[in-house]
Design a protein that fits this description.
Length: 1015
């Protein structure tokens, strides 16, 4: 086998073990037991350790090993239960590595574990010895106890037969930095087959030379550097020969498997977050006691969002919720419909029916910053929250808002107060210069105490003051003077609210004074961007100086980088918004910046959005609109009333027309026709004929659709799929029917043309629900053709698929809808008949059909990917969904030829009406074999080498569908083909499969994908 030096990161959920070896053997597994409790038993905060940094460093070191190794890193929370479980596991790890605290009480020592609510649990030497006793073999080859005072605990491992144990002196504490440095170098040496003794010495030397440790003040020598002190705290036990290397199983390829940060949208860690450990513990405690909804409330800027993130990170680190931990930012969201859409988009749900989608999910959902919703749609919000809690028993909600949310909902309230004095000091030190640069006056301690009192535990002023000090390089005394801090006795006379208002106002004022001209210009403008100001938009309105000014605001902590957006953007901290508005000059209101903003939206922004949706990258398109929606609404509303362009281009009108098909992601419950009516007036006022035509075309497209419905109504509709009853048959090798069954599926009906008053029937399209799943795509060795290989596993997400190929009646109904990209012939088929499949349609025409259908219905229609088509066709069977052969009583093909032991049948030499054989596959789909070949979305590839495994379409490079030049893929066979070409795995391999081909055996059917409601 070829040797790869690049490590393969295989995602595993935290805590999942993969057993690969037999009993009584050591696997190439590193078992990391980590403990990071929040509080002691006396409810005092426990020092936070950089656990993830140590784990990531180990994985990085192993990836860089020059020869092939196969290692799995398993990470588990160190509770008393998990410790017992892993030590008694039948497959023994190569290394057991404990990361956490140790403690000493007189002559005894203990590991500090954590319980389910984050309280410390001391695990004594005696308990560890019991857990390690009665083992048939040693629990590992090497144990690394990276914890203070762990030397005595090592004896339990030695007695259990572990040959090599590394621990810390019984008398000593170890610095977090030293522990990380030591373990990183140790793994590098061990997996390069260096002896344990030499690996230990190399690791100790690495500590001696560490750059970070050399900068730390040594209280023993009164000089910089603690390297040697820390290095000699490590002990290699027992006191015997350790000249042998670890026995590591050889590998042919390089593979490092370790848990990834998946199934969440929250960042892994905020390096600047400190404190709040009591508050985190209190929320965890409520969750463990089965409280399902908790609301954090407190004044603006007090740190509710940061606390919510910290709670989410703690929970996800411990894998408490199998379906993940999710954060939904709702700042400036004033519609419950938009809330629903944001949840649906973030969690990639199939529909807007949240109660249905989350009914069986075990997840933790944070709804952050509900203030605008409480103000605008309080009743609707309470109704939704209660419905979720009633119908989704495993869902847990964490809400944040300024005021207590107490009305008509079973929700535990928790107020978020000011930070304590010690936490204030910690935050300040995170942003301030090193303490050595604070000055050397005798009043340093009292000045700091005065500053802490002045800041009053209010996070934003704390960061502002510290950042100001760092950027201006002033001393602590100078900072206190700059902030006009009054004597302690006067500060004590202020109320907490007065102190907070004063500290916020003064720190903002001093920071603003230090900004450059560009910074002072752009800071007030941020008040006009409730969704935040992106890098691209800042560049558009202020050029390079715009981005430079944003970076300056970040340095002074006057703006925050958004952690919930997909692009780089900054937002105003909520308490700073009022101050920013106060800095707006009369001549520099919204009129000053709106024309430039509208020009950006009309050009760069609309082009990006339309390209994303045009390339079927709907998730990114939706994400971009959702995170920009508040800004968009603000500026286009300004444009409807005030825009007067000199070039006769009404940008607000053109933006509205361009984005109208996707308006659901801008204003969830606003009918786009309302905005289009305003847009046409604006276009006429600006004498923009082109813009007016664009708006009129958009209005025409919407006028033929169903009555506009809000998101909640669409959710209720999607929750009411209809049952579909159908018949399936199974045949043997000779084609005899050996089993008949009646089965059920679910479907919805799309109205393409409503019934007329004169009695003409309407035209509909039935879409069948296809459940997600995994299948083997292609043909196995010894069967099929080379272009159907290699057979490979594909995971397909749920979707909806047309019950039949598109009929001529359905084609004609959709061709009457407004054009999106290209013209469609109303009657292209060679074999006429309303219920016969449409044929002689090109791939481009099929794509246009889907686009028109999407615009008409507000749902996301497209051609199936090749993987989706084969998965839907097989429905769990092979090579035909009937069984081992095919007969002319079950499908329309050239039955002059047979497959397997089948018999010759009727060759009809033309298409047949869809569903005429009255037999479906197990999913409820008809005519999947024969009748017409069906177009798929993918580019043609000669085999499956390099094929995607997630069910998505496989494109070579250009994802713009209307610029495609490569051949496409056709599936299913047709009325003219031999039976072997009608197999589930069969792929059309012919020059006729050009995307522009019009053959009398080429048709298609449509799918409606995940997140099927677009508009």
């Amino acid at each position: 086998m070829a040797v790869s030096k690049v490590a393969e990161k295989v995602p595993l959920s935290p805590g999942v073990e993969k057993v690969t070896k037999q009993d009584n053997s050591f696997s190439n597994q590193i078992l990391i037991l980590f403990s990071a409790p929040l509080l002691t038993e006396e409810l005092l905060p426990v020092e936070n350790l950089s656990l993830q940094e140590e784990i990531d460093a180990i994985a990085l070191v192993l990836e860089d090993i020059s020869h092939p190794i196969a290692v799995e890193i398993v990470v588990k929370v160190a509770t008393s239960q998990t410790l017992q479980d892993v030590l008694s596991h039948r497959v023994k790890p190569l290394i057991i590595h404990f990361i956490g605290h140790g403690m000493r009480d007189r002559d005894s020592t203990a590991l500090v574990l954590e319980d389910e609510v984050g309280i410390t649990r001391s695990f004594s030497e005696e308990e560890l010895a019991i857990a390690l006793s009665n083992q048939n073999q040693p629990p590992c080859q090497l144990a690394l106890l990276n914890a203070c005072h762990s030397e005595k605990l090592a004896q339990a491992f030695i007695k259990a037969g572990v040959s090599h144990v590394i621990a810390v002196n019984a008398e000593d504490k170890i610095l977090d930095v030293a522990a990380r440095c030591f373990s990183r170098r140790l793994y590098q040496a061990l997996f390069n087959q260096v002896s344990v003794a030499n690996s230990f010495l190399l690791s100790r030397n690495a500590v001696k030379l560490d750059d970070k440790l050399i900068k730390l003040f040594n209280s023993q020598t009164f000089q910089q550097g603690v390297n040697f002190d820390e290095a000699f705290k490590f002990r290699l036990l027992p006191q015997t020969d350790h000249n042998q290397s670890l026995i590591i199983e050889p590998a042919d390829s390089h593979q490092i498997i370790y848990p990834q940060w998946l199934n969440t949208n929250i960042p892994r860690k905020d390096p600047n977050f400190v404190g709040r450990r009591q508050e985190i513990h209190q929320v965890i405690k409520e969750l463990v006691s089965d409280k399902r909804c908790i609301a954090l409330h407190g004044m603006g800027g007090i740190g509710k969002t940061a606390l919510a993130y910290a709670i989410a990170q703690w929970l996800h680190e411990r894998d408490r919720y199998k379906d993940g931990v999710w954060f939904i930012s709702l700042r400036d969201t004033d519609s419950v419909g938009t809330l629903i859409i944001k949840v649906q988009q973030s969690l990639e749900l199939r529909s807007f029916a949240l109660e249905k989608e989350l009914r069986n999910s075990r997840l933790f959902l944070i709804l952050d910053d509900l203030d605008k919703l409480i103000e605008k749609e309080s009743n609707e919000l309470i109704k939704l929250l209660n419905s979720l809690l009633e119908q989704c028993p495993n869902l847990r909600l964490l809400l944040t808002c300024r005021d207590s949310l107490v009305r008509d909902i079973d929700c535990r309230q928790q107020e978020v107060y000011s930070m304590g004095a010690s936490e204030t000091r910690q935050i300040f030190k995170k942003y301030a210069p090193l303490e050595a640069e604070w000055g050397d006056n005798d009043d340093l301690a009292s000045d700091f105490n005065l500053l802490v009192k002045f800041l009053d535990g209010y996070p934003l002023p704390i960061k502002l003051a510290a950042s100001y000090m760092a950027e201006t390089q002033c001393t602590l005394k100078m900072l206190c003077e700059e902030l006009d801090i009054e004597p302690l006795e006067i500060l004590d006379d202020y109320s907490p609210e007065q102190r907070k208002e004063r500290s916020l106002r003064i720190t903002l004022e001093r920071s603003f004074e230090m900004l450059s001209v560009e910074g002072q210009d752009i800071f007030p403008l941020l008040a006009f961007f409730p969704s935040g100001l992106s890098r691209d938009l800042a560049m558009a309105i202020r050029g390079r100086s715009g981005n430079k000014a944003l970076m300056e605001l970040l340095k002074f902590s006057m703006a925050e980088k958004s952690s919930s957006s997909s692009d780089w953007r900054v937002t105003l901290p909520e308490p700073a918004r009022t101050y920013a508005q106060s800095k707006l000059e009369q001549r520099r209101g919204i009129d000053y910046v709106a024309p430039q903003v509208l020009d950006f939206y009309n050009g760069n922004f609309c082009d990006t959005v339309l390209k994303l949706f045009g390339n079927r990258d709907e998730k990114k398109g939706q994400e971009l609109l959702l995170q920009e929606n508040s800004n968009l609404i603000l500026f286009i509303e300004w444009g409807y009333e005030h825009e007067m362009s000199s070039d006769k281009i009404c940008r607000s009108a053109r933006i509205t027309a361009s984005l109208s098909p996707y308006w659901r992601w801008i204003e969830a419950n606003q009918d786009p026709l309302v905005r289009l009516d305003l847009a046409i007036e604006a276009a006429q006022r600006n004498q923009d004929r082109v813009g007016e035509d664009l708006v009129r075309n958009a209005i025409a497209a919407f006028s033929s659709r169903e009555v506009f419905k809000d998101v909640q109504s669409l959710g209720r509709e999607s929750d009411e799929l209809k049952p579909l009853e159908f018949k399936t048959v199974t045949v043997n090798h000779s084609g005899e029917i050996i089993e008949r069954e009646t089965k059920l599926a679910q479907y919805f009906t799309e109205t393409l043309q409503s019934p007329s008053p004169s009695g003409i029937l309407g035209i509909t399209l039935d879409m069948v629900a296809i459940p997600g799943g995994t299948f083997m795509m292609g043909s196995p060795e010894g069967k099929g053709y080379d272009f159907e290989k290699p057979q490979h596993e594909v995971k397909v997400q749920p979707f909806f698929m047309g019950k039949y190929p598109v009929t001529q009646a359905q084609w004609q109904a959709v061709t009457s809808l407004p054009q999106v990209n290209c013209k469609l012939r109303p009657d292209p088929s060679y074999f006429k008949g309303e219920n016969r499949p449409v044929e002689r349609v090109s791939w481009f025409e099929a794509v246009e059909f889907c686009d028109r259908l999407s615009h008409h219905t507000g749902k996301s229609y497209r051609l199936p990917s090749e993987a989706e088509w084969e998965y839907a066709c097989r429905a769990g069977t092979t090579p035909f969904h009937f069984g081992e052969t095919i007969t002319s009583e079950l499908a329309n093909f050239n039955a002059n030829y047979t497959y397997d032991a089948g018999v010759i049948g009727t060759y009809r030499e033309q298409t047949t009406e869809v569903g005429s054989f009255e037999v479906a596959n197990t999913f409820g789909l008809y005519d999947m074999h024969g009748n017409v070949w069906e177009w798929c979305l993918d580019d043609w590839h000669n085999n499956y080498e390099g094929a995607s495994t997630d069910g998505s379409a496989w494109f070579d490079n250009n994802n713009n569908l209307y610029q495609k030049q490569e051949n496409a893929v056709l599936r299913g066979g047709s009325w003219v083909n031999f039976p072997e070409y009608c197999r589930s795995a069969s792929r059309y391999n012919n020059g006729w499969a050009e995307r522009g081909s019009h053959r009398y055996d080429f048709g298609f059917r449509v799918v409606c994908g995940v997140g099927r409601i677009l508009q």
